[in-house]
Automatic annotation (TrEMBL):
GO molecular function: dynein heavy chain binding; dynein light chain binding
Gene name of the record: Wdr60
GO BP terms: intraciliary transport
GO CC annotations on file: cilium; cytoplasmic dynein complex
Name of the protein in its database record: WDR60 protein
Amino acid sequence: SDGSIRLHQVTSEYPLMQWNDSTNGQPVIALKWAITRPAVFFVLDASSNIYIWDLLENDLLPVAKQAVPSENVVTMALLGEPEKPNGLLGIALAKASGQIDIQYVKKKWALP
């Protein structure tokens, strides 16, 4: 609820990494690991901002932030085929109105 993100290992109750205030204090609505690239994850906050984290590029801050204009996004899901080397990765965004928006991620964050 405070925008903190913690990375845990299943064998320990203590986080391996913790990023405080990672969304400028906005609650985290959803967090999804990329299905085509293990070091990348996406965070959706309550202000409809999407943060892209690539732990191989920067493990302190997100590598990109994208605002979704005009309407509240209530959840997200990732689309892709990890068994195919094309690196196609999409984000399905569900808006409060019931509309679904699909955006594709740049190849540098999607390629295995």
